[in-house]
Amino acid sequence: MSEPIARPRKAVIPVAGLGTRFLPATKAVPKELLPVVDRPAIEYIVEEAVRAGLSDVLMITGRGKGAIEDHFDGHPEVERALEAKGDQQRLDRVNASTGMEVHFVRQGVPKGLGHAVLCGRSHVGDEPFAVLLGDDMIDERDHLLEQMIEVQAQRGGSVVALMEVPRDQVSLYGCAAIDPADEGQDVVRITGMVEKPPVDEAPSNLAVIGRYVLHPRVFDVLEHTPPGRGGEIQLTDALLELAGAEGEGAGMTGVVFRGRRYDTGDRLDYLKAVVRLGREHPELGADFSAWLDGFVRGDAT
């Protein structure tokens, strides 16, 4: 009788990207700290990990990202001032790292997502773990990561989040080939992956989005994965090797996500995310929605 698969306890969040698409806003401010309504984007990602039971968070940082560490550190002066005022609501907002352990490792030279994940090896150890990309925000009402953790516990190997996209957009993503027997299902066996394929070469319209639950065997593969597309070490290449491997930690499953996702790595989609989440904000939503409706009609100032 095989032993039960350990459940993930740790999340790895790569945050070493340069944020060039948001220049000049990101010249001095990490893109992960750009506000989505009234909170930095990275807070939404960390809170998602904690909701899924991953209270040990490792961020893979780089040069110019010190402000992220500051954000998740304490701020005694502000906290004392708020305590003196009895302003518990704002005090709770300041304590961004409540209920979690947050650790940081420097990537040094940015060599791609695969290399960023590999930088977390000594912290993660020999256990399954989750990877959350900061550009992909999953609505808190949708429980994608929790579902992926359950699937990994049942099937082993690694689990990747997929999303159906229009065929003409597949070249913007990693794209998955799946077992034909699983077509139309929400949990599928992945047989291959292609990083940003031309439309006419894409194996499906199932795009890989920024959530992974990985077996630690991926570290061994990443150690010898050569640079791929863009001269970078691609996580996709390592997962493709595991998909066709045998033994412990081999195999790859996809979970097709049909919920609400916000892409904060694109300027237009970032604006859409701010509007959508602003309309649903518990304090600001009603007033903002009323103003926005009037603005669209042309009778609001």
Automatic annotation (TrEMBL):
InterPro entries tied to this protein: GalU_uridylyltTrfase_bac/arc (IPR005771), NTP_transferase_dom (IPR005835), Nucleotide-diphossugar_trans (IPR029044)
Any Pfam family hit: NTP_transferase
Domain Nucleotidyl transferase: 10-274
Family: Belongs to the UDPGP type 2 family.
Keyword check for Transferase: yes
Keywords: Nucleotidyltransferase, Transferase
EC number: 2.7.7.9
Coiled-coil region: none
Keyword Repressor on entry: no
Catalytic activity: alpha-D-glucose 1-phosphate + UTP + H(+) = UDP-alpha-D-glucose + diphosphate
Origin: domain of life: Bacteria
GO MF term set: UTP:glucose-1-phosphate uridylyltransferase activity
Gene designation per UniProt: galU
Class in the EC hierarchy, top level: transferase
Protein name, as recorded: UTP--glucose-1-phosphate uridylyltransferase
